[in-house]
Amino acid sequence: MIDPAQNIDGKFDVLIEGKKIVGLAKPGTGKRKIGSKAKVIDAKGCVVAPGFIDMHVHLREPGFEGKETVVTGSQAAVAGGFTSVACMANTVPVNDSQAVTGYILSKAKQAVCKVYPIGAATIGLSGEKISDFGELKQAGVVAYSDDGRTVMNAELQRRIMELARWHDMPLLVHAEDQNISADGMMNEGYVSTELGLDGNPAVSEEIMVARDIMLARFTGCRLHVQHISTAGAVELVRWAKKKKVPVTCEVTPHHFTLTEECVGDYQTNCKMAPPLRTVADRAALIKAMADGTIDAIATDHAPHGILLKQIEFDKAANGIIGLETALGLALKLVQKKRLTLPRMVAMLTQAPASILKLPGGTLRENQPADICIFNPDANYVYNADNIRSKSKNSPFINWELPGVVRCTLVDGKIVYTG
Predict the structure, then answer these.
(1) What is the pLDDT, as a whole number, of residue 376?
(2) 8-state DSSP, 261
(3) Is the per-residue pLDDT at 31 higher than 60?
(4) Is 300 a catalytic residue?
(5) What is the DSSP letter of 65?
(6) Which of 62, 131, 279, 323 lies in disulfide reach of 96, CB 3.0 to 4.6 Å?
(7) DSSP for 142-208?
(8) What is the pTM of this model?
(9) Which of 300, 314, 370, 411 is catalytic?
(10) pLDDT above 80: residue 274
(11) Domains of the chain with bracketed CATH
(12) Cα–Cα distances in Å, from 188 out to 12, 55, 309, 315, 405?
């Protein structure tokens, strides 16, 4: 059992009654505590961890149900060991109102994992007029974000941060100076020049990370930098944390696994925003994961249909699916001794739960029985035929990955076995 929130890494029985964890016991004693009729899940050879929490997914509903729905996204989630997901606001209509939030939560009742909506920071994601933060919070959102877009007006961003702090909610930001990135389709550098593609330089991200850190320092807003991708941005967050600025950040599995070279001969499944960066950037990300500068692993699960990916690179949509490969890609870092197993689990559980103030993220007594049981030593081939998501846009298809999810439980109910 690994539960970083309790500093536990050892052999235990996890005792569940109804929807809650009722206690931990040394091996062999748990059955007697609950009773002889208790159902036993044999986790021999596996890790029992809190259910993973993904604080950055796109479930596409409402508006793009052909790519994904709340239900199909939840099915992909539990197959990857995730028991909770937070879904972004770039739906159609945008989740900038109580009505859309309520619609998503109504759909979430049929989901096999817990679904937490994130509300748009500005109406229509326009970056022009602030959404009704009070209404959104009352409706049930857990954070505010214009993910995929940057609020370019610094004064407006200041007001957004002040309101977010007033409502005691985190602001999740996509850091990109859109004047600099312009039409950039991949990281700006030698590879983009060789391929003849417009580049998006690292400085476009770093300028906005710097601006938002200073605004967070000024306003006291809880700032969270999404899908951080450059060494410079990591250093800015590291500086901010030393200065006690309330800032956290996340990294995606594709950014700590792939680099700009993977675009190769215009591989559209390697087109994303922010773009894949350099080998040096990837090394900086991995180091920051290990030392705690980067708080969480989040997938940025972004489903797209075939027609939006199997076209010319400049016309292709940004993003890849990631819920079913996150564990395997993170475990590859553990195998290479770049990351410890408890640290990896913490980034998938304790950290996102803390940032979004969600239940779960720990196997502590009286917490929800949201659990992932996985075998870190078993390998599998990520096959297109077995993908639970509606979409198949992944560069990791046919990769052999470690970490087979054997069982996922949500509120004490088994929702996936593998």
Answers:
(1) 98
(2) G
(3) no
(4) yes
(5) T
(6) 131
(7) S-EE-TTS----HHHHHHHHHHHHHTT--EEE----HHHHTT--EESSHHHHHHT--EE-HHHHHHH
(8) 0.96
(9) 300
(10) yes
(11) 50-359+390-399 (3.20.20.140)
(12) 50, 28, 21, 18, 37
